[in-house]
Amino acid sequence: MRLDRFDLNLLVVLDVLLEERNVTRASERLCIGQSATSAALSRLRDYFGDALLVQVGRRMEPTPLAQSLAAPIRDVLMRARVAVSMRPVFDPAEIECNFTIAASDYMIDLVLAETACNLARTTPGMCLNMGSVPEDIQAMFERGAIDLLIVPEQYASHMKHPQAELLQDEHVCMMCAEEARDIDVLTMDDYLDRGHVAIKLGDDASLAFEEWFLPRFGRQRRVECTIDQFNVAPLLVTGTRRVVTIHRRLAEKMAAMHPVKLLPAPFEMQPLREFMVWPRYLDEDPAHRWLRESIRATVERAEAA
Question: Are 74 and 279 within 8 A, CB to CB?
C-alpha cells in the first residue's frame, strides 16, 4: 500500500531494523531474504535522504533522524494492528487476545491474581502474561513489549501515555509475632536499632526510601537483607528481631498466613499511589478497556469488603 508515494510496507521493515540493528536478524524476523531486507533499507535511505543505519563493527547504529523516527513509526504500526483487529460487536466471551502486564508481585498478589480468575469466567480467550517491572521500563514500553504497566506514581509520572490511579496504600511495620508479642507501639529508636529487610524494586525507588531517613532522623536504617519482591518478606522476619516496612494491604494478607505481627510505622510517609499506564494506541481498544475495567472492579470490590 502506498501513501503519498511511500510504500507503507517499508515502515514494518524499518521498525524491525531499528530494533534489531542487524540485517540478518531483521530478515529472520520478517521472514524474508537478506537481499530483500537490504533492498528495502536502500529504498528507505533514498526516500528519507539519510543513511538511517550506519555500520559500526558488527552492529548498525541509528542516525539521529532514525532515532527520531523510531517512536512515531512504532506508534503508527501498533495503532494499525489494533485497528485491523477491531470487530463490529465486542463480546468478551468470544474474543481471543493476549496482553502483557508488568507489575510488582505486590500488585499481582493483591489485584491481578483475582482479576485473572474472574476473566477466566467472563473472558476465557484473554491470556494475561504477567511479569515483574523491567529496569528499562520506558524502552520496553515504547517498543510495545508491555501492554499494561502498574507502577507507583514516581514511575508513572514520567510516562507520557494514558494513565489512571488504581489504589492507595499506607506503610506498616511487620515483625516476628513471637518477638513482638509485648510490643504495642514501635518507637523510632527501637525501629532504627533493629535490623531491616529492604525491598528494592529499582535503584531509584530504593535510594529515595533510604535517603528519606537520614535528613529527618540523622541516622540510617541497618539493612540486613535486601530482596526484590514482597512475598518473601515474612520469611525473613520470622524467628528474628528484624523489621520490614511494607504496604498495609499486602501485609494484612501475609499476617493471615504467617506468624507475624503488624505495627504502625513510627513515622509518617506519603501513601503509596499505584497507577495503571497503557500505550496510547490501546486507549480505545475494547478488549484492553475491558481488562482495565476488570482490574479496577477487583480493587473496588476489595475496598468495599
Answer: no
For the chain, the residue count is 305
Q: How far, in Å, CA of 155 to CA of 137, rounded?
A: 9
Q: How far is CA 159 from CA 35, 69, 114, 133, 280, in A?
A: 38, 19, 27, 14, 11
Angle of helix 286-304 relative to helix 113-122, nearest 10 degrees, comes to: 120
CA torsion through residues 281, 283, 287, 292, sign: positive
Residues 108-125: pLDDT tens digits? 999 999 999 999 999 999
Domain boundary at 27, 61, 85, which? 85
Calculate ∠ Cα 157-114-253, nearest 5°.
85
- Tell me if 91 is assigned to some domain: no
Region 134-139: what's the mean pLDDT? 78
Asked if 245 and 265 count as a contact pair (C-beta separation under 8 A), the reply is yes
Radius of gyration of the chain (CA): 24
* Share above pLDDT 70 across residues of the chain, in percent, rounded to a whole number: 90
Averaged confidence pLDDT in the chain: 86
> What CATH number is attached to the domain comprising 119?
3.40.190.10
Report the Cα 68 to chain-centroid distance in Å. Answer: 24
In this structure, the answer to whether residues 78 and 204 fall within a common structural domain is no
| φ and ψ of 60, to 5 deg | -100, 130
Are residues 294 and 261 part of one domain?
Answer: no
Choose among 51, 41, 55, 46: nearest CA to 11.
Answer: 41
The DSSP code sequence of 269-285 is -PPEEEEEE--GGGTT-
Residue 207 has pLDDT above 50, yes or no: no
**In which domain, by residue range, is 104 found?**
97-161+278-304
